Amino acid sequence: MRIDSMKKLVRQGDGPFLAYVKYDDKLPLINIAGGISECLCALANTSGGTVLLGVDEAGKAPGVKNAGNVLSELMNLIPALISPMPDMVGSIEKYGNGKLIKFAVMPSPGEPLPCQDASGRVLVRVGRKNLPVLMEYYTAFCKARPEIMLERTFPDGASWDDLDPDLLDRFRNAIKDTRTPEELMTKVYHLAEYNGDIIRPTLAALLLFGKEVGRWHTRPGVELVQVEGNYNDKSYQYRERRLRLELPLMVLPGIVFTHLGAEYLEEERRYDLFFKQKVRFPQKVWKEALINAIVHRDYSIEGAGTEVWLWNDRMVTKSPGLPPAPVTLEDMSRDGIHLSRNPLMARVFTDLGLMRESGEGIAQMIKEMEEKNLHPPEICCTGFFLNVILRRDPVYDKEMQKWLKKFEGLPLGPDHIRILVFAHAHDDTFSTMDYREHNKVDRDTAYRDVRDMVKLGIVEKAPKSRSRYRVK
Predict the structure, then answer these.
(1) Integer distance in angstroms from the first to the last C-alpha of the chain?
(2) Which comes out higher in pLDDT, residue 320 or 196?
(3) CATH 3.30.565.60 in the chain, residue ranges
(4) Residue 256, C-beta contacts closer than 8 angstroms, at least 6 positions apart
(5) b or e along 340-361 (b: 16 or more beta carbons within 10 Å of the residue's beta carbon)?
(6) Which one is predicted more confidently, 232 or 317?
(7) Whether residue 44 has pLDDT greater than 70
(8) Distances (CA, A) of 359 to 6, 337, 439
(9) How far is CA 182 from the centre of its chain?
(10) Helix count and strand count (H, E) for the chain
(11) Which of the four CATH numbers 1.20.1560.10, 3.40.640.10, 1.10.10.10, 1.10.150.120 does domain 398-471 have?
């Protein structure tokens, strides 16, 4: 691997496909081998990936002393710590003036048994963590594996010439990698493989970079549906406009972003002659919802594409395919265990900076919507579609929003806003206990936040009370 490629790998940070293990020459090598084996086990049981030894959690890479001897000993120790042993390759890589050790592991077949660590645990990689799961969970995961492995299949008649060289170069430039497209596709992203001297592209590669994506899937794109009305207006089907976009997935999100823009996702509302408000979905939220719908959809469903419905009062992304077992709607809504149906595609979009690490997106979407006083995303299923609903109407009514306008421009977070709303409904007063219970925070956080509000001149101590405050 070239030095600049290693720099990129270190810079991108650990995640669902990359794990860092710190090297300390004072530690027994068996302990280091244990940390590596946990990461290898989790990656193999999920989607495969890379472990880098010599990089700490902060992304600093002091390297590995005597890397040749260390690698030799680790290759003898690790097989005794994982059972069954996955398909794994170890190598020494130059980085700056030092050396790192890289372990590349392929996905485990999962049958008859998943990879287990020395303690007999079944681990999976979720975001930046190796999480132990019950065997029942992994069994359900294996049952869903055929649809998860679909992107790795090799369509009949497909060849390297079916990929668009311009798109491959654009991808290479976007991720700032100097290796050839052939190297990236076969050795780094596993989107193609050699069969003798011939390179065979996977379905994922053809959908991402194909010259004619319609040859490999009947509906790989996105359909935009703009409705002149609200969701509950039953006549909406007579007042809608549709635009269908069938493009390589590498460029599809950018084109959709352009078509959506502020025209669809911003609305001006006039509450009275003197007060009006512009309600706009946070850009990060609707883009994340769209990318997730494209990347995590079930491409075994040929007759339907990803849809984006734009009503006056909400935006709904509809992605073909229910959550892959054993993930449930409850898991997704509370940001529990997540499972990417198309991890190869997800890695491409993550490296392009278009999506967050697995398991982080929904939590961030909730936070962004909350900061704008909008309802959190709603996740539900209708038929075989997984829907993410972003509502445009604010959480608070018109009068409350008008009252909150007086605090505009101040550095207030969602917890501050919630307690102000609570106080306004209770004679403009609240206690530190109200703050704790209403925002589900501990005592120290409540005291600190309330103290900040006092310093900002928003609230003051209520007369004859030690713990109650009054909004000024």
Answers:
(1) 63
(2) 320
(3) 222-391
(4) 222, 224, 245, 290, 308
(5) bbbbbbbbbbbbbebbbbbbbb
(6) 317
(7) yes
(8) 25, 7, 23
(9) 27
(10) 17, 19
(11) 1.10.10.10
Domain(s) labelled CATH 1.10.10.10 in the chain stretch across 398-471
pLDDT confidence tier of residue 269, bands split at 50, 70 and 90:
very low
Q: What is the pLDDT of residues 270-282, one digit of tens each?
A: 433 333 334 467 7
Q: Which CATH number fits domain 3-141: 2.30.30.50, 3.40.710.10, 3.30.70.60, 3.30.950.30?
A: 3.30.950.30
The residues facing 268 across adjacent strands are: 278
Helix runs in 47-86, H state only: 67-77
| Residue range 443-469, pLDDT digits in tens | 899 999 999 999 999 999 988 888 899
Contact yes or no for 55/65 (Cβ under 8 A): no
CATH 3.30.950.30 maps onto the chain at 3-141
**Which tokens is 337 given?**
């265990």
Measured CA angle at 436 (ends 404, 422), to 5 deg: 30
What is the domain class of 222-391 according to CATH?
alpha beta
Rounded to an integer, what distance in angstroms lies between the CA atom of residue 271 and that of residue 292? 35
Residue 298 has pLDDT above 80, yes or no: yes
Average pLDDT, the chain: 84
Q: How far is Cα 63 from Cα 196, in angstroms, rounded to an integer?
A: 36
Q: Please, where are the H alpha helices in 101-176?
A: 135-143, 145-148, 165-174
Half-sphere exposure of 239 (CA within 13 A, CB side): 11
Q: What would the pLDDT profile of 149-202 be if each residue is shown by its tens digit?
A: 789 899 999 999 999 999 999 999 998 888 899 999 998 888 999 888 899 999
Q: Which region holds residue 193: left if phi is over 0, alpha if psi is between -120 and 50, else beta?
A: beta
Query: Does the pLDDT at position 1 exceed 70?
Result: no
- CA dist 356 and 346 (Å) reads 9
Please spell the DSSP secondary structure of 228-261, one letter per residue: SS-TT-TTGGGSEEEEEE---TTTHHHHHHHHHH
The b/e string for 10-33 (b: 16+ C-beta within 10 A; e otherwise) is beeebbbbbbbbbbeeeeeeeebb
pLDDT of residue 15: 78
Residue 427, Cβ neighbours under 10 Å: how many? 10
Tokens of 148: 């998860």
| Range 147-160 burial, b when 16+ CB lie within 10 A, else e | bbebbbeebeebeb
